Amino acid sequence: AQRVTQPEKLLSVFKGAPVELKCNYSYSGSPELFWYVQYSRQRLQLLLRHISRESIKGFTADLNKGETSFHLKKPFAQEEDSAMYYCALMIYNQGGKLIFGQGTELSVKP
Amino acid sequence: DVKVTQSSRYLVKRTGEKVFLECVQDMDHENMFWYRQDPGLGLRLIYFSYDVKMKEKGDIPEGYSVSREKKERFSLILESASTNQTSMYLCASNAPWGDTEAFFGQGTRLTVV
Predict the structure, then answer these.
(1) Quick check: B96 contacting A, CB < 8 Å?
(2) Mind listing the domains of chain A with CATH numbers?
(3) Which of A20, A91, B33, B108 has the largest CB neighbor count within 10 A?
(4) Is A44 in CB contact (< 8 Å) with chain B?
(5) Residue B11 CA: distances (Å) to CA of B33, B34, B45, B81, B88
């Protein structure tokens, strides 16, 4: 069965520290993976997707098919990065079904 | 430039009531989704639709049904609301190919008493 797992419910770091939010997926096909973010009192929105291989707000994520992982990283966390982060998997052979992990709350302390 | 709109921000309903949550998108997306968002459980897919009148069950469809009579509108129906359906409900839409970014509604906080 397809599944997205985010093992950490809460990640708390100090400003300027490196951040890594973990995401593992279970899917036998070719995955399309995303990170979505929800800031306080805002809508869920796309942060980045693996196919574009871009850096957004200093965040990057690399797809590791061998480890079935798509961890989100940032070398120096900022207070404005505090938010809920969700990893998501799109399943093309099921009409574009989009499933999410449990989410990780990132708290960046001053 | 709101793209996905949910009809209500807050709803309070009584146990046993039939509840309708409405979602409209203006991006001509084929796919539309309903999720419930609970702390520690993340976003769990209830139903999604990949075309008008087409629907697929998600991970937690029990107690819910959906309707998609027009491309832009996707309704979630709670046949007989129960207290364990108290939650935040999120609607989303995306295209199944090309730019597959999903856009979300503002959410409906449903309380069943």
Answers:
(1) yes
(2) 3-109 (2.60.40.10)
(3) B33
(4) yes
(5) 19, 16, 20, 12, 10
Q: State the DSSP code for B35.
A: E
Q: Render pLDDT for A57-69 as a digit per residue (tens, 0 to 9).
A: 999 998 998 999 9
List, in order, residues 6 or more apart from B99 with CB less than 8 Å away.
none
A91 close to B (CB below 8 A): no
- Residues in B closer than 8 angstroms to A98, CB to CB, are 31, 33, 45, 48, 92, 94, 102
Per residue in B24-72, pLDDT (tens digit) is: 999 999 999 999 999 989 999 999 999 998 999 999 999 999 999 999 9
What is the sign, positive or negative, of the torsion defined by CA atoms of B57, B18, B111, A42?
Answer: positive
Mark yes or no for CB contact A98/B97 under 8 Å: no
List the structure tokens of A66. 């061998």
Q: Are A23 and A69 in contact (CB under 8 A)?
A: yes
